[in-house]
Amino acid sequence: MHSAKQVGRGVLNFLLPPRCPSCGTRIADDGHLCGTCWGEMAMITAPKCGICGLPFAAGDLDGAECGACMRERPEFDWARAAVVYDDRAKSLILGLKYGGVGSGVPALGRMMAGAIAREPRPDVIVPVPLHSRRLLMRRFNQSQLLAKTLADIMSLPLDAFALERRKATPSQGTLNRKGRKRNVAGAFRVSEMGKKAIEGKTVLLVDDVLTTGATASACAKALKKAGASRVGLVVFARVKHPSAG
């Protein structure tokens, strides 16, 4: 026998057919990509940088450090991304961030969980926060939505408010590596309640996109200052060739 929940879902799917959050094609169930969009995702696999997860073009380099990490080690201990930030990934992220297309969150979360399947299991999940002013404008934090999905998939505790953004920094979009680092310096802190949740713990930091790693490093620095033992980072997509300078 079908449960009332299954019947209700069937009626809803008939009235409002689920659609791929990337291209809008009708699909069988919410929370997935269509076969075409799934096949076009540029998944990140080995070889990649052992620290920041930057994919290498080829060769027996898996686990080696990329040039950027050798020049300046990030504050986080490791970072992994599910896919390369290309047009397909960009449409999903912009749809989530600005279009409110939340139906893609489960699919993104599953890909992110796959990207860290071989990494040490963290103790607690913490999203990269938005400043209260931007949160009020956008009404939700896409990193928190992704973090909640990961917490459910991995059966881990989520502390959505441990990390706070205390400075309303300008957008990072037009800044180079040095500019991004200056922009977010001192922008994050851990709340008093958050300190109890992360002290001595391995923290999994969650964000949507990794570019130069400036924001993630600023967050990891604040988390470690507050007592976190290690900080890993997982994002949905990462820019393959972040701006230098």
Describe the structure in your own words.
The chain is an alpha/beta fold and 245 residues long. The protein is 38% helix and 14% strand. It is built from 10 helices and 6 strands, in the order H-H-H-E-H-H-E-H-H-E-H-E-H-E-H-E. It has helices at 4-15, 35-40, 67-71, 87-97, 105-115, 132-138, 142-154, 177-184, 192-198, 214-225; strands at residues 78-84, 124-127, 163-165, 188-190, 202-210, 230-238. A 4-stranded parallel beta sheet has the order 1-6-5-2. Strands 3-4 form a two-stranded antiparallel ribbon. Helix 5 (105-115) packs across helix 7. The protein is globular and about 45 Å long. The termini are far apart. The model is unreliable at 4-15 (pLDDT under 50).
**How much is the average pLDDT?**
87
Q: Give the distance, in angstroms, between the N- and C-terminal Cα atoms.
A: 63 Å
Helix content: 25-40%
Provide the spatial order of strands within the biggest beta sheet. 1-6-5-2
Net shape = globular
What are the secondary-structure elements, in order, as H or E?
A: HHHEHHEHHEHEHEHE
Q: Count of DSSP helices? A: 10
The structural class is alpha/beta
- Output the radius of gyration: 18 Å
**Content of β-strand:** 5-15%
Major beta-sheet overview: 4 strands, parallel
Poorly predicted residue ranges: 4-15
- What is the number of beta strands? 6
